[in-house]
Amino acid sequence: MTVRARILPLLALLLGGATAAPGVLMYRLDPATSSIAFSVDHLGLFTTEGYFAHFTGALDVDPAAPERTKVEVAVDADSIFVPWPEGIAKLRSPTYFDTAEHPAVRFTSTAVTSGAGGHYQIVGNLEIRSITHPLTLDATLTGRATDPATNVQTADLMAVGQLSRAAYGMTADHIFISDSVKLRIRAHIALAPGAHVD
Amino acid sequence: MSIDAPSWSRAQRRLHWTTAALVATGFALAWIMVGVSTDDLLLKFLLYQLHKTIGLIVLALVLLRLLLRGLRRRPAHDARIPPALQTAAAGMQVCLYGLLLAVPVLGYLVAATAPGGIPTLFLGFLRVPHIVGADPAWFAALRPAHRLAAIALVVLASGHALVALYHHGRGSPVLTRMWRRAA
Q: What is the pLDDT of residue A114?
């Protein structure tokens, strides 16, 4: 699959980069236990929720300097799901994600700032349909653990954000479907194998 | 089952023709709304909600009609119509009432089990609770059942109308007494 072919080298680059900074923890997003969901509003009457089934992601966390945390996520746009078959076709079509032309959606963080109560602001760039705009995610660390079976460190994050779909050229159905799209990302991240830990 | 009222009561007559008009409108709307492209999502949504609203009104009106039928009965059969045909007419009416109830109920269940969780909004804003949730298997079975029952209803109602016209042509009051109060 072309998306995989594009994402994997990106990740390899990212994983390789982990050893560059000593003390940096390399976490990998686990798609089996993580989700990237979105919701839109219809005329203020009801909402539709959907998600992306396939994605890869990585976080480089420097416990000594959390603000240097880097987040990189690549989403297979074709894996979009809404509970309505015609809706999936519509979202893949040129009026929305145009997945044939733009198979990947990417998020790359530029700055991470930690706030009170385990909150983090992840500022970055979101690329959809080859259009890039800044996006801020409000993330909360909800749990940290060490998997007793594998001795791998894991962390649970919940991130929310909001974007304007029109900004990415998705202007169809502007009365019926809200311009504002809410994002809800639940991430179960595991320390990547071979990652450098001090 | 007959009582010798000279004609149907005014409420019964009004309900009869209102139901007929709503069923015809809802039926036509069904074909139109299904045909609307998902590119016109808002229009498609509004037409579906209108269709669902009509169905709910029909259901309420038919329940009212059955109540009135129980309370006020019906005018006597036209004696010129042979008893076998009177029985056939009564059977036809049972089928029509059954379908008038079944089609909206099936439609409601289609809406409730449909994927996507689109609400049923009476008059476009009053949310009607769905007693069952989205279920692809039930939806796949209910949708053709609703469609088939609706087609049967329209076919039978057309037959019912043609037979009424036929008797009317032969001087029977069956149609006029549904149209206006007997002199």
A: 82
Angle at B111 between CA B42 and CA B22, to 5 degrees: 80
Q: Could you tell me if B99 and B152 are in contact, meaning their C-beta atoms sit under 8 angstroms apart?
A: yes
Determine the Cα angle at A10 with ends A169 and A15, to 5°.
140
Tell which residue, A146, A183, A147, A139, has the closest CA to residue A37.
Answer: A183
The DSSP result for A78-90, as a single string, is: GGEE-SSHHHHHH
CA B172/CA B156 separation, integer angstroms: 21
- Indicate if the pLDDT at residue A1 is higher than 80: no
pLDDT tens across A175-185, in order?
999 999 999 99
Place of tokens 């929310």: A160
Nearest CB to A84 within list B116, B121, B127 = B116
Query: Which tokens in the block code for residue A117?
Result: 């109560």
Beta bridge partners of A42: A46
Of A87, A89, A176, the CB nearest to B116: A87
A89-98, B51-60, B70-79: segment of lowest average pLDDT: B70-79
Give which of B75, B87, B81, B68 is closest to B3, Cα–Cα.
B75
Q: Is the dihedral of CA B2, B6, B7, B9 positive or negative?
A: negative
Touching check for B133 and chain A: CB below 8 Å? no
For the record, the structure tokens of B168 come out as 């009317």
For residues B180 and B56, which has the higher predicted lDDT (pLDDT)? B56
Q: What does the DSSP assignment read for B106-120? A: HHHHHHHHSTT-PPE
ipTM: 0.80
What letter represents residue B164's amino acid? Answer: A
Mean pLDDT, all residues of chain B = 92
- What residue ranges in B20-63 does DSSP mark as E strands? none
Backbone φ/ψ region at A188: left (φ over 0), alpha (ψ -120 to 50), beta = beta
pLDDT digits (tens, 9 = 90+) for A58-80: 888 877 777 788 999 999 999 99
Task: Give dist(CA A115, CA A123) in Å, integer.
Answer: 13
- Name the band, by pLDDT with cuts 50, 70 and 90, for residue A150: confident
Element (H, E) at B30: helix B10-35
Chain A segment 34-53 residues within 8 A of B by beta carbon are 42, 45-46, 48
Yes or no: say if B62 and B97 are a contact pair by the CB < 8 Å rule: yes
